[in-house]
Amino acid sequence: MDAESINCVLELLVEPLQASVPQPTEVVLHDLQRIPDTVRAIAGVVTGRRIGDPPTDKLLERVAAGDLSHEIGYRSQLPDGRILQSTTIIYSDRDGRAAAALCLNTDVSAWVTLRAAMDRFVLGHEAAPAQTQASLAAHRSAPSSGPVNGSEYFPHSVEELSGRLVDAAISTVGVLPEKMRKEHKVQVVAELDRRGFFLIKQAAETVAAALGVTRFTIYNYLNEVNGSTEQSD
């Protein structure tokens, strides 16, 4: 089946699927042929995203890596502290390329709070605090049937996603842009390439501005990262 047909079928499932699962849950269909404006359909309000919004940083990274495996029941956390249990199912087209991602995000914060209250009731006030912290830590970092993913980011615009990825790459290298030598800047570009950043429109211009170089220099760094013999000046 081609990518458009897959997305058309899945689009019909978004609303009924959202209505059939425990609430509050958000069901999102990402059309992976439309990067970066991948959100094609959405039902439910958990992360506040809308049609036309970009993918999460982790989904973009997986697409760039060609990782088409499913992730079931992994944990995420929103900036406001809410804890999510998430599932991402990736569909490929007849040629084996990533075509769509159907994602479910359930806000389980109330269940974590209930667990803490039960801990206080069963264990008493003295023992409960340590148990409550352990419970929160388990929900924030421990997988149920999928990999840990506590840092997934749910952007509302391409600019927001781009800024997040650039900041994360610079942080990984650990050197301020104004103090970077060429090797540091190449490392930033390599990290961004790994994260799928260059699938985003005007990506080279964005990182060039952040690193204080031209976009042509960024292309040269990319060539260097990917093993080309072309080098930057």
UniProtKB/TrEMBL annotation:
Pfam families: HTH_22 (PF13309), PAS_6 (PF08348)
Domain YheO-like positions: 13-114
Region (Disordered): 134-153
Residue ranges of every copy of the Transcriptional regulator DauR-like HTH domain listed in the record: 165-223
Signal peptide (residue range): none
Domain of life, source organism: Bacteria
Protein name (record): PAS domain-containing protein
